[in-house]
Design brief:
The chain is built from nine helices and eight strands. By secondary structure, the protein is an alpha/beta fold. It has an eight-stranded parallel sheet. The mean pLDDT is 96. The structure holds D-xylitol-5-phosphate and zinc ion (ZN).
Length: 221
């Protein structure tokens, strides 16, 4: 890793679904003031993952009240059918799961046609080779460090090798995609993640268990 890469600040995206859903606007305002780099919006369909969480109508509402970057992670079985609805609802980055997608390359092209960032997420057991031919066309790779579906799970160190290999492939090929880790990120493991080449982290439990989100974000940065 180059000196420059080491000196970059880690970006932090609080996962709003892990906040108090009875007071969403209040949560959004607190995140705006926290020093976080944007919002992570976890959409689930009760099929790709067990729970139903938040979806398009709420994304539209949040889009109306904030100019923060919204990073939308769709944990759904039919991303090919629905990804554009999330883009139209206000996603700045749209991240779909490779495991559920038929036409990943086409999805990335369409997201970019809309002037948005294309992201692809990998479950813990999915090899990065599955997206090797997509890496020149994505802006973001989200490495899941938990099996998606719930906040507050234990971080799986088995994904560290995958992160390292992705970072190596990126620099060997002069690519610019961002590497993000989602799942069980906390102040104890961020330094290691950063040293492996991670640019941004998603945080649910590590933010929302604190009263003071600025303090929680600072601990991660
Ligand atoms: C997992 C979600 C995550 C999760 C993060 O299904 O994609 O974004 O809510 O929460 P923590 O940081 O608590 O693992
Ligand atoms: Zn997520």
């Amino acid at each position: 890793m180059s000196k420059n890469e080491k000196e970059k600040t880690l970006k932090v995206f609080p996962s709003i679904a892990a906040g108090n859903l009875m007071h969403i606007e209040h949560e959004v305002r607190k995140i705006e003031l926290s020093g976080a780099d944007g919002l992570h919006f976890d959409a689930m369909d009760g099929h790709f993952v067990p729970l139903l969480t938040i979806g398009i109508p709420l994304l539209e509402q949040i889009r109306k009240i904030t100019s923060m970057h919204i990073d939308v992670h769709i944990m759904v079985s039919n991303p090919d059918q629905v990804f554009l609805d999330y883009v139209h609802a206000g996603a700045d980055t749209l991240c779909f799961h490779i495991e559920a997608t038929v036409h990943a390359h086409k999805i990335c092209a369409k997201i970019k046609e809309k002037g948005k960032r294309a992201g692809v997420a990998l479950n813990p057991a999915t090899h990065w080779h599955d997206i090797e031919y997509l890496l020149a066309d994505v802006d973001l790779v989200t490495v899941m460090a938990v099996n998606p579906g719930f906040s507050h799970q234990h971080h799986l160190p088995l994904v560290h090798k995958k992160i390292k290999e992705l970072a190596k492939f990126r620099s060997a090929n002069g690519l610019g995609f961002e590497i993000q880790v989602d799942g069980g990120v906390n102040p104890e493991n961020v330094a290691l993640l950063k040293s492996l080449g991670v640019d941004s982290v998603v945080a649910g439990g590590a933010i929302f268990k604190h009263k003071d989100y600025s303090h929680a974000v600072a601990l991660l940065k």
